[in-house]
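1st attempt posting a full record on here, be nice pls
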Amino acid sequence: MTSSLLLRGLLAGLLAGLLAFGFARVAGEPEVDRAIAFESAVSHAGHDDEPEIVSRETQRSLGLFTGVLVYSTALGGLFSLVFAASMGRVARPLGPRGLAALLALLGFVAIILVPDLTYPANPPSVGHPDTIRLRTGLFFLMLLVSAASMAAAVHLARSLAERWGAWNAVLGGVAAYLLVMLLAHHLFPAIDEVPSGFPATLLWQFRITSLGLHMVLWTSLGLLFGWLAEQRLLRGPSW
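the predicted structure (as tokens):
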């Protein structure tokens, strides 16, 4: 059963990655090009040119395609394992598609949306070398805190369901998660890497597009895997 779901998760992740790549190519790359053009103008003004190791055309085609598909396929595999572990706990009232949609929503919120509110995405050309590693480490630490808090909130909601009822238990879990993440947001240091003079509109558009990319990926993954899992669980194994 688990191996069959894992195979479907990898396939769903691959297909979701293709959709996310298309979105990134159409909506994301123009923003990256404009950010690079800004950095190039600043570098030329300061005579700080650096050799291009990988061509921009390779980055926006083969590099982007490979990176997105490797990430999305691995994510699909992990998603299928979480789905398999959750089936006996919350799957009965929801069904395979409902459970997959719920997990995709929780995953997007915990892994993408909430950490991004503290450390939002920056264009590749934006950032100080001295703080990039620190900011990256803090982002992943925030991601771990968010994911662990989400798992704890789900467990809390399930524990309270019998005494409080489903709605009140869910509200209690949501409140607990928000409280922990608000505290984490307050405790984690703020790092502002955006150089002065960088167009605010361009930065805002890039960050919205980055969230849109992840939204396409997680939505596609939840819907595709839910459909594939339903074929396996309700209609019997065909492959």
